[in-house]
Every structure is written in C-alpha cells, then in structure tokens.
Amino acid sequence: MPKILVTGGCGYIGSHTLVDLINHGFEVISIDNLSRAFRQTLQGVNQITGKTILNYEVDLCDTTATLGVFEDHPDIQGIIHFAAFKSVPESVQIPLEYYRNNLNALINILQAAAQFQVPHFVFSSSCSVYGNADRLPVYESTPLKKAESPYGRTKQMGEAICSDFSEANPQLKIVLLRYFNPVGAHNSGLIGDHNKQTENLVPIITETAIGIRKSMTIYGTDYATRDGSCVRDYIHVMDVAHAHTLAILASMENKIDSKCAVYNLGTGKGITVLELINTFEKVSGKQLNYKIGNRRPGDVAEIYANCEKAATELGWHPQYDLEEMISTAWNWQQKISS
C-alpha cells in the first residue's frame, strides 16, 4: 500500500490514525516537532501494530526542513495534516501564535504537496468553523458563522486556503474533515490523550476523578440548553481515526467528485456537560468534585452534527457509544496514573 505522511503523528488523534492506517495496510511516516506531543506515544503505536514509526522532529513552519522530509521520501502518496495548536482558551490569550503556527504550517505542507506531486491531502478541521449556528444539527452546507475563537478562525482560514489551493492545483485532491469532540483512547490502553495541560473536558473529568485535579469547573449553566450547560457531539478517537483512512482510500479510488470535499465527523447526538459527567460517574463508579463557573470566552453554546454525507460517500459509521468512549478514556487515565 502507498506511503502516507501524518503530521502531528505523536499527538492524540494523529497517533490513533497511525494505528488505523497501519491496520489497513498503509506504510506511514510522521512529522511532529514534539512541542505539544510526546515521543513515547510512538512506542505505544509500535506495541499495538508491531511497526516502528519514523518521526521527523521538524517544525512545519520551517519551509526548508519540511521540504527535506519529502526529499527523503519522494514516494509519499498522501498527507494527513493534524499538526496545529488546538486550545480554544489559549488561542484567545495568544492569537498571533495560533495564526502564525497553524496557517504557516498548512501553507508549507501544501507547498510541499504541490512541489513533490503528492495527489491526496486530508486536512484536520473542526466543528468550530460553524460558530454559533442558527440551526442544528449542522450540515456541511450550513453557513459558517463568526468563529468564536482565534483557533476556530484558523480552521476557517485553513479550509479557505485548502479550497483556493485545490482550484489552482487540480491534480491535488483535498478532503476537509470537520470533527466534533474526539474522546476516549485505544482499547489496548497503550495510547490516548497525553496532553498534560489539556483543556478538553473528558481528560479533565478523568484527571479529577483520579485525584490529579482537586476539582473541575463547569463553565456556565445558563445557556439556552436543556440543563443550561454546553452541548457537544462526542466521538471516539478511533472512529475519527478510521475516517481519515477512509478519506484517503476514497480519494485514491476516485470516489470523491469534489476537488475539495468536506465531511462532518460526529455521532449526531448532542450531549450536555452535565450529562457527560453523569455518564462518567455511572461508568466509573466515581463521584466527581466539580463547581459551577462563569461562561468561558470562545465557547459556543451548542453544536452537533449531521453525518449522513460521510456515511454515504465514505462508508463511515461510528462504532463506539458514549459509555464506551468514557470507559476507554477512564482505562487510559488509570493506566498512565498507576
């Protein structure tokens, strides 16, 4: 099978995607400068798959270093681009760093794809591109509202860059995957969310339950939702990973008509923060110590997906329910804390 380059391969979603690609016969290499990830994640990938992953510790904002990877591997046939800063609160605090890193990295990797004639490209986008949508669920055709954070805006701008670039480079097929809230970990417990300064809700819940955090905060219970807390669409990380494999395969098999196609990745079920906490307490048998705080800048009130397009065109169907998502996340937390 062809060689696929995964940027951000030592990160949370990137590492799970490496596993899924390998399980479907692909050869993989990684670029990750380890600024937000950990080298030992690839040891977990190796234990799961039996494959040793070559990682280039390259900053994608460095054009020369980025092109050097392609000079070493002129047989790369596809790129899956995860590498980006992704914290909503941090992006509010240091917006220029998010624009500089997320956009320059994308521009450089697209330039490399064109220069070395790599025909297939998958961009890691986000439901944050929708902003506070007027109607739910959101479809791929739903008009994009103002992004609620600089992070979300980098994803809107990244999608626009990909679309414009695909028009100018018709030999390059681009797929934009807008995923909602990836959670959980690999069933083996060997890889998971390893971010020590996470802003994601599920790791915060598991860290609180195991005692790493004394308590956690729910940011706002005065939203116009069924219990006042924010609503999100949670999707297991291995379901998200498999969608990238399917996207590359569909692109290679000419099953995607558009030069720059977009797909939602979610379950289509909106879960409130309080419902997620209740599910965790049920699955784990642990009672969480949490408090109610003010709304957090950058958060949208409610978002969940319609994913019929991914099901119809990619053959993608999520396999994990919410309790399984929580169970694998809790298993991972216990493993890394033991």
**Total number of strands:** 13
Count of DSSP H/I helices: 11
From N to C, what is the helix and strand string? EHEHEHEHHEHEEHEEEHEEHEHH
> What coarse outline follows from CA principal-axis ratios?
globular
> Which residues sit in consecutive blocks of at least 5 with pLDDT less than 50?
none
CATH topology annotation of the domain at 3-183 and 235-266 and 303-319: Rossmann fold
Give a quick set of tags describing it.
338 residues, alpha/beta, Rossmann fold, seven-stranded parallel sheet, two-stranded parallel ribbon, 11 helices, 41% helix, globular
Overview of the molecule:
Strands 3-2-1-4-5-6-11 form a 7-stranded parallel beta sheet, with helices on both faces. α5 (95-115) runs parallel beside α6 (150-168) and α7 packs across α11 (322-337). The protein has helices at residues 12-23, 41-49, 63-72, 88-93, 95-115, 150-168, 201-210, 237-252, 273-284, 308-314, 322-337, and strands spanning 3-7, 27-31, 54-56, 76-81, 120-126, 173-179, 181-183, 216-219, 231-232, 234-236, 260-265, 271-272, 290-293. The longest helix is centred in the N-terminal third of the chain and has 21 residues, at 95-115. The model has no long low-confidence stretch (mean pLDDT 96). The chain has a domain at 3-183 and 235-266 and 303-319: 3-Layer(aba) Sandwich (Rossmann fold). By secondary structure, it is α/β, with parallel strands linked by helices. It starts with a strand and ends with a helix. The chain has 11 helices and 13 strands. The protein is globular.
